[in-house]
Amino acid sequence: MDPVYVILTTKPGVFRTETGDEVDIIETYDYVFYGRALAEYRIARLHGETKLIVTEETPPYVVNRVPSKFLEKFESVEAARRELAHLTRFGSMESSLTLRPNAVSAEH
């Protein structure tokens, strides 16, 4: 199987996305919109079809197991980066997407 990359999202206080053994996190970014941290985005490599666990962080704390087949897939880390940049830029609005310090940046 050729490498496949996806973008995973966690919105603190709203929901978190958790992975398993079939997923390697490549890069983690913090997204800030008008000074407010809104999301954590992770570019991840899939090693096959898997299910991701998406857990709501407010009652009733619903847990969903989402098959990776429903995620948009990218052929490279760079393609995933381009899509993430596109998703987080809104004209002249004040937003930033910052690679976390000590994050491993990898080209696969």
Class from secondary-structure proportions: mainly beta
Name the shape in a single word: globular
Report the sheet with the most strands, covering strand number, pairing sense and barrel closure.
4 strands, antiparallel
The number of strands is 7
Low-confidence stretches: none
Kindly provide the radius of gyration, computed on alpha-carbon positions and rounded to a whole number of angstroms.
14 Å
What is the compact description of this entry?
The chain is mainly beta. The chain is 10% helix and 45% strand. The strands form 2 sheets. A 4-stranded antiparallel sheet has the order 1-4-3-7, with helices on one face. A 3-stranded antiparallel sheet has the order 2-5-6, with no helix packed on it.
Task: Please outline the helices and strands.
Elements: E1 4-10, E2 15-18, E3 23-33, E4 36-46, E5 51-56, E6 63-67, H1 77-87, E7 95-99
Antiparallel strand pairs: 1-4, 2-5, 3-4, 3-7, 5-6
Structural write-up:
The chain starts with a strand and ends in a 9-residue tail after the last strand. By secondary structure, it is mainly beta. The longest helix is centred in the C-terminal third of the chain and has 11 residues, at 77-87. It has one helix at 77-87; strands at 4-10, 15-18, 23-33, 36-46, 51-56, 63-67, 95-99.
